[in-house]
């Protein structure tokens, strides 16, 4: 059975769909409980963002689009971009830690909160995992590593490695966007002045990779030479289209938020908040600061 048909298997779709529905219901339950308990109105936008992120995750992993990634490199690239540039930031905008801690069974929710309240090792690990340098390196390693011909070929050949590839893109996307979005946790916020540079530097490896795919005069991934031809695209044209798509998408997805953050920082209110963040980042992380909001 070819890898192109993997995502069409009923058991695969059932497990994926059941997992996404469970997470969505847990989040909705937590959001409704938070809204009932809060004295002030809670915005509906985090709920819409989180459910939207799960919907795009289904499109990338469980829809017919996912089954075509073995036929066209362009579709393969679309799935990667959806996971890292759409799914990840939408899930983080939904501030999932807070809603899920209220939506999961009480024992599980309290256990997770206690872990980050009273376990110094867990608090240290959270600080490391959300450090911008670590997040940046993880995202770039995922993008470059899985697009090297050897890694790409193995992921296309083995079903289980293909699943790991997509999971790593999703996780790398969540880590990458964490310092930018800064979802509502009690981890001290990072100074915002570094985020435009963080985003700009992330475009450079992607630009090099996408330019290589666009201007290379040979097909980099031989598996697409024998794939069925869709939309009358030759393998080389397909590769050029995938590279151009990556080039344009990454440029807009990274530089537009960088521009917005820069404008906010330079505003009088933004400069005041930046000074507050710098002061907060110098404080030691104690138990109350590590609590998941």
Question: In a few lines, what is going on in this structure?
Answer:
The protein has about 290 residues and is mostly helical. The protein contains 13 helices and no strands.
> What is the averaged pLDDT score?
83
User: How many domains is the backbone divided into?
Assistant: 1
The percentage helix is: over 70%
| Uncertain ranges | 1-7, 280-293
> Proportion of β residues?
under 5%
Q: How large is the count of helical segments?
A: 13
Cα gyration radius (Å):
21 Å
Basic shape: globular
What sequence of helices (H) and strands (E) makes up the elements?
Answer: HHHHHHHHHHHHH
Structural class: mainly alpha
What characterizes the major β-sheet?
A: none
Q: Termini, distance in Å?
A: 46 Å
Number of strands: 0
Q: Please, could you describe this protein's structure?
A:
The protein has 293 residues and is mainly alpha-helical. The chain has one domain (3-281). The protein is built from 13 helices and no strands. Helix 5 packs across helix 6 (106-118), helix 11 (195-215) packs antiparallel against helix 12 (235-266) and helix 12 (235-266) crosses helix 13. The relative contact order is 0.12. Residues 1-7 and 280-293 have low confidence and may be disordered.
Keywords, please?
293 residues, mainly alpha, globular, disordered N terminus
Helix and strand layout, with pairings?
Layout: H1 10-37, H2 45-62, H3 64-67, H4 73-93, H5 96-103, H6 106-118, H7 120-129, H8 132-147, H9 149-157, H10 159-181, H11 195-215, H12 235-266, H13 268-281
């Amino acid at each position: 059975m070819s890898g192109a048909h993997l995502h069409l298997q009923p058991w695969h779709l059932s497990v994926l769909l059941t997992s996404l529905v469970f997470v969505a219901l847990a989040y909705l339950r937590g959001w409704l409980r938070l809204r009932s308990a809060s004295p002030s109105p809670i915005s509906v936008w985090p709920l819409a963002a989180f459910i939207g992120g799960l919907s795009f995750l289904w499109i990338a992993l469980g829809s017919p689009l996912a089954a075509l990634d073995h036929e066209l490199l362009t579709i393969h690239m679309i799935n990667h971009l959806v996971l890292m540039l759409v799914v990840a930031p939408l899930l983080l905008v939904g501030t999932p830690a807070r809603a899920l801690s209220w939506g999961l069974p009480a024992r599980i929710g309290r256990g997770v909160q206690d872990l980050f309240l009273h376990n110094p090792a867990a608090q240290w690990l959270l600080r490391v995992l959300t450090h911008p340098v670590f997040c940046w390196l993880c995202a770039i390693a995922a993008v470059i590593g899985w697009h090297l011909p050897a890694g790409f070929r193995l992921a296309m050949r083995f079903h289980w490695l293909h699943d790991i590839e997509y999971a790593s893109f999703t996780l790398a996307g969540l880590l990458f966007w964490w310092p930018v979005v800064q979802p509502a946790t009690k981890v001290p916020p990072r100074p915002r002045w570094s985020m435009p540079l963080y985003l700009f530097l992330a475009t450079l490896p992607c630009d090099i990779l996408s330019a290589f795919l666009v201007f290379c005069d040979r097909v980099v991934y031989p598996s697409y030479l024998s794939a069925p031809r869709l939309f009358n695209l030759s393998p080389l044209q397909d590769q050029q289209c995938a590279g151009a798509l990556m080039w344009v998408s990454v440029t807009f997805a990274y530089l537009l938020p960088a521009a917005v953050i820069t404008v906010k920082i330079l505003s009088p209110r933004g400069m005041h908040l930046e000074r507050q963040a710098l002061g907060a980042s110098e404080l030691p992380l104690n138990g109350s600061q590590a609590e998941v909001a």
